[in-house]
Every structure is written in C-alpha cells, then in structure tokens.
Amino acid sequence: DEMLELVNNESFKKMDLLVGPLYAETNKVATAYCETFQLPIINPMSNNRKILDDYNLSFLAQPSAEMQAIKASDFVRKQAFMGRNTAIYYTDSPNDSTMAFTYRQEMQRVGYEIVKFEKILPYSDDIGSKLPSNKVSHIFMATSDKKAGLSMITALNKKEYMSPLITTAEAFNPTNLSNGTLSGREVYCLDPEFVDLEKPEVDVFRKDYLAKYGIIPSYYAFHGYDLALFWGRILGRNGSDIRKDLNSRESYKDIYNLSGFNYIKSQDNQVLPVTTFQNYKFVLAK
Q1: pTM check: above 0.85
Q2: Mean pLDDT of the chain
Q3: Distant-in-sequence, close-in-space partners of 79: CB < 8 Å, separation ≥ 6
Q4: Contact (CB, 8 A) for 78 and 95
Q5: Rounded CA gap, 70 and 188, in Å?
C-alpha cells in the first residue's frame, strides 16, 4: 500500500531512475511502474536473478548467484589447478543450490568431470562423509552458512585432503579466522561485498566519511556512493538512452571505491571480486 501511494504521488513521476525497493512485494509494484514509464530500476542488494526477467531495464548492483558461479568458473580455469575434475557441495539456501547447479553446468560445459555433487549440512562429520575418496583438482562449496567454511576445513584436515577450496565469503566469520586455521591451504572466496582497505580511493573515502559523520563507513556506505556515482554518470552522458553507455567499454574506465560494474549486454553486474586469506585478512586473489 505504501509503495502504491508513492508511485501515485505526482512528485514521483519526475524521477529518472529508481534504486530499490528491497522487498519482493514492493519490488513488483515499483517494477510495473518503471516498465510503464521506461525507467531503469536497480536492486542494490539482491542476488536473485529472477527479478530481472520481467523487465529489460531492471538491474542488479551485486552479481546474481548464477553470475557468481559463472565468474567462479572463469577464475578456476585461469588458475594452475591440476586436473580437470571437481567436487561440488551446497547448503540449504535456494541461492546456494542455484549457485551450485550453475557452477556444475559451467564446469561440464568446459569439459570438467563432476566427481561429487551433493547437498551438505554445515557440520564437519556430514561433510567428511561426502568427500570424494580420490583427490580432485578443487572443491567448490556454495553456502550462505557461516559455520560451513570452518566445518569444511575441519573435514578436509581430518582426511588430509589438500585440494584448493572455492567458496563464498559468507562461508566464514572473519573474526574467527587466523592464519593457522587456513595454514597451507588454498582458499578462495567469492565476495561481492569486498572492500579493499589498501586501495587509495577507499582510504580517501574513509577519511572524508569519518570527518563528516564521525564514524567509519560500512560496506553499504561505499556501495551506495559507488552506485549513485556510476548511474549518475550514465544518466549524465546520455540521459534516458542508458543501454548505449552500458554496452560501451568506455563507461567502465572510471575507478570506484569497490570493484566497479559491468553491464555489457547484461542486466546483471558481471564484476565479482575473488579473495584469499593472507596475514590475518582477506585480500584480492591474483
């Protein structure tokens, strides 16, 4: 009801772009309105690609679960992992299974053998019972459960299984990690919310934000700033003809606090940071 009241407000009709809303029911109303008036609508936080299906000017600011799986596949194929096989696991969330199924599809497409494909509980005993008997080139785990990461590491350690692990940043609680926990292991995390504190732009933003608001900016502050800056530039150059700019590589040369955007022939952001744990923190993987 509140969203209907908002879209029926005369002042609302003056907008050029809508960021949000965050929830499914209000998003339906907003998307229908934006489609009627051919306005872009950007969901700032969702990883659900289905919300892009109904309208060609709807966009995800974060890569969807499917896009993350595709980019994970791209990353793995560029690494020096031995062999052409993998074991794939996922936990209970619908996003987890979506990511795992897409990853399996992508790896099969490029000729990898899928040795295991199983749903797991986020406990080491359950994971350990489902590990393959022979070594695979890498293990992929799609999860949004913060217990799953350490449980997987524990299970791998018990079996002295040293294959690289590709998983989500949500698999770990960084405050519980130490160099010893992941010592000697190759662990890579898909992390759309990664903030590189060593990046000069991030340092400047942090200092300016602290001076103005008296607090350290969260990921959401960086994300909101970058989002407004990117779409402001797109609208500023070509007005309502946004697809022209979105399909041009020139539009992505600007530097942002976070990892940036890529909507070339896509409604889904195709930029995904992959991180690894070094010196008590996550850093961008090479």
Answers
A1: yes
A2: 94
A3: 164
A4: no
A5: 15
